[in-house]
Amino acid sequence: MEELGRLSADEFKAADKFPFVLVLDNIRSGLNVGSLFRTADAFALSKLILCGITAQPPHREILKTALGSTETVEWEWRSDIVEAVKELQTKGYKVYALEQTSQPIWLQDFKVEPSQPYAFILGNEVDGVEERALALCDGALEIPQFGTKHSLNVAVAAGILTWSLVGKGPCS
Fold first, then answer.
1. What are phi and psi of 24, to 5 degrees?
2. What does pTM read for this prediction?
3. CATH number where 127 lies
4. Is residue 102, in this structure, part of any structural domain at all?
5. Domains: count for the chain
6. Is residue 7, in this structure, part of any structural domain at all?
7. Could you read off the pLDDT of 137-163 as tens digits, one per residue?
8. Which sign, positive or negative, has the C-alpha torsion 89, 62, 162, 17?
9. 153 is a domain residue
10. Is 161 exposed, middle or buried (0-12, 13-18, 19+ CB in 10 A)?
11. CA-to-CA distance for 109 and 12, rounded, in angstroms?
12. Which among 49, 57, 47, 52 is positioned nearest to 79, based on CA atoms?
């Protein structure tokens, strides 16, 4: 890791993070959760919030794909997504769902406001973001797609989202 210029786990924990939180709404696959931990580590996101049935570390499938990022990424669990969203909003976060809706904000058009913390809800692999949570959001972001399928794997979608955000964030 030294040759690659990577931070140690302790250095990473102490380093500045982007003010972005990923909220995982009932993610069924532990493999997806592990991939989301790695994405949060790769893009220095401030936290993951795991909600509902989302598996929590230590979990065999999470550890398989997280490759140690469960030790570097801050995370917490909430039983209810609505509780998590309301708590984030009281702390000043703007909350957006990554979801297909009738009035989406296309990801490429989304503007990050300096010094504004954001939370992004990633929904269940089959059912998407829970309607109760969607109703509380400041908006819904959508990734344009041009093929025959109308959805992406949640971990892939999160990678596209976070890559787009860090280029618009306060550290860019």
1. -100, 110
2. 0.94
3. 3.40.1280.10
4. yes
5. 1
6. no
7. 999 999 999 999 889 999 999 999 999
8. positive
9. yes
10. buried
11. 30
12. 52
